């Protein structure tokens, strides 16, 4: 680029050469000057002048090199170049010389057109370059046209439609900033019909264009891969959605999604797992630590000890290690409860309760309480069953109070107590309203009462009437509940002994034992508890 630092200028007395020696790297050479002279066909060149200017140590030396005055002017021009990928066009300016004129925007556009450039021309940039003629470089390449690159399509993907992220196994941070160490997302639980994943549609993308106006094809997106289905999942008819066929735990194995209706917990339910709430069955290989809970829409099975914890299942509960409830443990099953033993716990079952022994427990079931195994005893607390209570020993030799009840429907009994309490409350309320009414009436002619007292009297009358009607409705329900409870039947079997201190209730009859009785069957016969010998035939 050294020749760019040589300028030939035509004056009245001839041609002058002007060199720019300011940059050692681009300093012109004798060859550069002679080529420039040849380029413009300068005649009558003074060789001595050429030698003199080349020897000059000035930064910008100038000297007359020829007497020629008829040199043709050279106008400013541009050279057009394009990049190898045809996405960019540049121009390089050549300066005007010997009185030539500067190039115009139209001439630049004409040069681009002659070079085949038709797309992405930056007219504003060209106009700015033409206006800034005194500032532009004759060395720099200016970008005046840019192509449009193609936008490749996006491949379709399989996206999870539920949150499976990484907050698992971390305590939950509450709104107030405190941490609940019992609320941990130990697993991903889904309900039947939940959309698990979605196949997104691929994007086609958009084609591009080079500066010559030739289209550049884009790479279209590929369809998402087909779902890899595991157990208990299915795809929608259009194969866009993957859906849970059952409620349970989401299991991800590589690219395969499955639903397991059983949640397997290898260790304890405690601070590592938090409380468990699952739309299926739960199997615990370890223990359930005090203060934690399990709630399942299926069955619950625990291999270790259940401490002062809470277990609730719509199905059955099976405790291989038993429960030591410390008067805080609670077991509630929609069907049967099986436990090795139970101590100081509350047990509720929609079916039967089967255990080796019940010690100081409050047990209620719609079916039977069956003590099976080596000890087979009930001592302390309460035991209430719909059909039968069977044990080798009931109560203790020390006369520990033990309340045993069969033949009653726990739901009916509970409703009876609720209705009875509400009825007694309304009776007292009606009595008080009546007293308030009578106090106002006793004051004299009610037609002479002022507006305020008349309004109070009317309110009392309406309220008392409403309370009376509600009390009569409860009275009817009480009568019906008593009749239903009296029709219930049941029996209690003590295969070895029932100790004194045991209170027995069978349907609508009751008995308090002051002495031990051995090998007996207790029934309700004609409204009284009858003790029969245990023959072993039931």
Provide a descriptive summary of the structure in words.
The structure is a single chain. Helix content is 20%, strand content 37%. The strands form eight sheets. The protein has a 21-stranded mixed β-sheet that branches. The protein has five domains: 65 residues, no CATH class; 70 residues, no CATH class; 76 residues, no CATH class; 179 residues, no CATH class; 76 residues.
DSSP summary, beta strand count: 41
The chain-level mean pLDDT equals 87
Q: What is the tally of helical segments?
A: 6
Class based on secondary structure composition and strand pairing = alpha/beta
Computed CA radius of gyration, to the nearest angstrom: 51 Å
Number of domains: 5
Main sheet specs: 21 strands, mixed
Helix content: 10-25%
* Intertermini distance: 118 Å
Outline type: elongated
Offer a quick outline of the entry.
The protein is α/β, with parallel strands linked by helices and 538 residues long.
Key words describing this protein structure:
single chain; 538 residues; alpha/beta; 5 domains; 21-stranded mixed sheet; 4-stranded antiparallel sheet; elongated
Describe the secondary-structure layout.
Blueprint: E1 6-11, E2 14-19, H1 30-39, H2 47-55, E3 62-66, E4 77-82, E5 88-94, H3 105-114, H4 123-131, E6 142-146, E7 151-152, E8 158-160, E9 171-173, E10 179-184, E11 189-190, E12 195-199, E13 205-206, E14 208-209, E15 215-216, E16 228-229, E17 233-235, E18 241-244, E19 248-253, E20 256-260, E21 262-265, E22 276-278, E23 281-284, E24 293-296, E25 300-302, E26 310-313, E27 317-319, E28 323-333, E29 337-339, E30 342-349, E31 353-355, E32 357-365, E33 368-371, E34 377-385, E35 388-394, E36 402-406, H5 410-441, H6 451-487, E37 491-498, E38 502-506, E39 509-512, E40 517-525, E41 528-533
Parallel strand pairs: 16-20, 21-23, 22-24, 23-25, 24-26, 25-27, 26-28, 27-29, 28-30, 29-31, 30-32, 31-33, 32-34, 33-35, 34-35, 34-36, 35-37, 36-38
Antiparallel strand pairs: 1-2, 2-3, 4-5, 5-6, 7-13, 8-12, 9-10, 11-19, 12-18, 14-15, 17-18, 19-20, 37-40, 38-39, 40-41
Helix pairs in contact: 5-6
């Amino acid at each position: 680029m050294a020749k760019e630092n040589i300028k030939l200028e035509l004056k009245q007395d001839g041609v002058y050469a002007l060199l720019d020696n300011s940059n050692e790297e681009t300093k012109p050479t004798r060859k550069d000057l002679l080529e420039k002279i040849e380029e413009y066909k300068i005649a009558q060149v003074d060789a001595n002048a050429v030698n003199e200017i080349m020897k000059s140590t000035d930064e910008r030396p100038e000297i007359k090199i020829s007497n020629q005055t008829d040199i043709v002017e050279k106008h400013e021009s541009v050279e057009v170049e394009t990049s190898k990928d045809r996405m960019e066009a540049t121009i390089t300016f050549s300066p005007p010389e010997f009185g030539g004129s500067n190039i115009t925007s139209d001439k630049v556009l004409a040069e681009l057109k002659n070079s085949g450039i038709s797309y992405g021309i930056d007219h504003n940039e060209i106009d700015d370059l033409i206006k800034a003629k005194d500032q532009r470089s004759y060395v720099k390449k200016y970008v005046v046209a840019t192509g449009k690159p193609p936008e490749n399509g996006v491949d379709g993907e399989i996206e999870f439609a539920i949150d499976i992220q990484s907050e698992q196994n971390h305590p939950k941070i509450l709104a107030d900033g405190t941490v609940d160490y019992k609320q941990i997302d130990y697993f991903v639980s889904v309900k039947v019909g939940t959309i698990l994943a979605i196949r997104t549609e691929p994007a086609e993308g958009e084609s591009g264009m080079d500066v010559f106006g030739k289209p550049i094809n884009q790479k279209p997106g590929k369809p998402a891969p087909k779902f890899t289905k595991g157990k208990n999942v299915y795809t929608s008819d259009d194969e866009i959605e993957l859906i849970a066929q059952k409620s349970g735990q989401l299991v991800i194995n590589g690219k395969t999604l499955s639903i397991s209706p059983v949640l397997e917990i290898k260790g304890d339910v405690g601070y590592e797992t938090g409380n468990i709430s699952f739309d299926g069955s739960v199997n615990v290989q370890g223990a359930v630590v005090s203060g934690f809970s399990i709630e399942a829409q299926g069955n619950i099975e625990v291999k270790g000890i259940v401490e002062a914890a809470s277990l609730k299942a719509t199905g059955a509960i099976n405790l291989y290690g038993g429960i030591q409830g410390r008067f805080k443990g609670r077991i509630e099953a929609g069907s049967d409860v099986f436990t090795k033993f139970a101590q100081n716990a509350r047990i509720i079952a929609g079916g039967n309760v089967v255990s080796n022994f019940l010690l100081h427990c409050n047990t209620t079931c719609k079916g039977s309480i069956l003590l099976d195994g080596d000890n087979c005893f009930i001592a302390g607390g309460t035991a209430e069953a719909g059909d039968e209570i069977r044990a080798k020993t009931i109560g203790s030799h020390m006369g520990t109070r033990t309340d045993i009840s069969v033949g009653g429907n726990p739901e009916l009994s509970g409703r009876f107590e609720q209705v009875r309490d509400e009825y007694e409350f309304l009776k007292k309320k009606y009595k008080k309203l009546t007293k308030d009414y009578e106090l106002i009436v006793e004051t004299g002619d009610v037609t002479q009462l002022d507006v305020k007292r008349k309004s109070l009297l009317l309110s009392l009358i309406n309220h008392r009437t409403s309370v009376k009607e509600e009390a009569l409705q409860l009275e009817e329900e009480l009568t019906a509940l008593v009749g239903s409870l009296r029709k219930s039947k049941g029996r209690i079997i003590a295969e070895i002994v029932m100790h004194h201190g045991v209170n027995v209730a069978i349907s609508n009859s009751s008995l308090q034992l002051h002495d031990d009785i051995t090998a007996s069957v207790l029934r309700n016969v004609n409204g009284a508890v009858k003790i029969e010998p245990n023959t072993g035939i039931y």
